[in-house]
Design brief:
mainly alpha, 17 helices, 3 strands
């Protein structure tokens, strides 16, 4: 038996590492997979050469995956063998990393490895949904259908995220300009006025004193402000990585904050419905589909709550009942899941739920941005007015004193 060091993701999405004993690397990966882990890297303990199954951690874009899956479906439907299909798709893709992955997978499959297991070696780049769907399609003999559905799934994901990103561009630009304008005024303009005020020798109004003090702090201690921001962001990220309890609380906070919390919940509900539909279409049981879906939801808290019902589903409890028991998902999602279970049309019902929440996310985002734009502009205008008032108040005071002496 040989010892292998590994890094993997648990069924709840947490990063774990450790050592497993096995005769071969492939056997070690199989053992970890049977325990519910997705292996991201593995190497033999004490070996001279590192065996890294993870080429990188950057995920392939949804649009690229959609195009690739569509190519797989067309070529496989034409009757070409899987190895030749992989070689053709690799030759057509412009993504260098994906091309390398497909070439390596083609070599593995030609050597006798399963398609899904070969893709799983590159889990740092390929989403869990893709790998598990391919595995289910491979086992059921429905690879063509699976790739067709994955192409549609990733196309919808790409379109939805693209619309949200496009809608966020303008308010993000406005907020960025606001920060830059205020920073330039406080760091460069106010010190100039301060020199003028000092030469006047008169007592400055309170707003002016506050503005000058703030400007002095920013000029002198700008590195402290930057360091504080970096440490705060880094501390939160480190705590999320090291403490699952903190990560749960932080991600739960993201579901209850005003406006954005509702968008996060609806987005997670859409991810649940769309991913579950694809998983069940691929032939996975409800418990298996939930286990995979829980690792694909972007909000960690909602993914964790979804994953927590897997043991109950394996014991035969209804999906809708257990989904409602989490208290994390919207009532419509749980009730429509129940309707799908009762009618035997769960896959179709989940697709309807996914389309509904995709639309609601876009609408809610548009409404939030509609409120954010005037608020940002008013906030920027208010800050500039306060600064101008603080600058001109001493001038008005001096002008008044000058008139009174005449």
């Amino acid at each position: 038996m040989r010892a292998f060091k590994y890094t993997a993701r648990s069924s709840y999405g947490a990063n774990v590492d450790g050592v497993v004993e096995a005769n071969t690397r492939e056997e070690a990966v199989t053992i970890l997979k049977d325990d519910g882990y997705i292996v991201t890297s593995i190497e033999e303990s004490g070996s001279e050469h590192d065996i890294d199954l993870r080429i990188g951690s950057k995920k392939t874009k949804d649009k690229t995956l959609s195009v690739m899956c569509n190519q797989f479906a067309i070529i496989l439907e034409a009757g070409l063998p899987i190895v030749r299909t992989l070689e053709l798709v690799a030759g057509q893709t412009e993504d260098k990393t994906l091309k390398e992955i497909l070439t390596n997978v083609a070599n593995d499959v030609a050597a006798g490895y399963e398609l899904a297991s070969s893709f799983e070696k590159h889990g740092g780049h390929l989403p869990t949904t893709f790998i598990e769907s391919v595995r289910a399609g491979e086992q059921s003999g429905n690879l063509v259908l699976v790739f067709k559905r994955l192409a549609t799934f990733y196309r919808k994901q790409s379109e939805t995220s693209g619309k949200v990103k496009s809608a966020m561009m303008y308010p993000s630009f406005i907020m960025g300009v606001a920060v830059i304008v205020v920073g330039v005024i406080m760091v460069f303009a106010v010190p100039t006025f301060k020199t003028t005020f000092d030469s006047m020798g008169s007592e400055l109004p309170m707003p002016t004193q506050i503005m000058i003090s703030a400007s002095d702090f920013m000029v002198k201690w700008w590195w402290v402000i930057g360091l504080f921001i970096v440490l705060a962001v880094g501390g939160i990220q480190l705590a999320k990585h090291k403490s699952e309890s903190f990560r749960l609380k932080w991600s739960k906070l993201g579901t209850v904050v005003p406006v954005l919390g509702k968008i996060n919940v609806m987005s997670s509900a859409s991810q649940y419905a769309s991913t579950m539909a694809v998983m069940m279409m691929a032939g996975l049981s409800s418990s298996q589909a939930v286990a995979v879906t829980s690792r694909t939801i972007s909000n960690y808290y909602m993914g964790y709550m979804l994953g927590s019902i897997v043991p109950d589903l394996e014991a035969g409890r209804p999906l809708a009942e257990m989904l409602a028991s989490t208290g994390a998902f919207p009532r419509l999602a749980t009730e429509m899941t129940g309707v799908g279970e009762e009618t035997g049309e769960l896959e179709h019902t989940l697709e309807v739920v996914s389309d509904y929440y995709d639309f609601e996310v876009q609408e809610a985002t548009a409404r939030a941005i509609g409120m954010l734009e005037p608020i940002t502009i008013c906030l920027l205008a208010g800050i500039v007015c306060i600064i101008l008032l603080a600058v001109y108040l001493p001038m008005f005071s001096i002008y008044g004193d000058f008139n009174s002496t005449l």
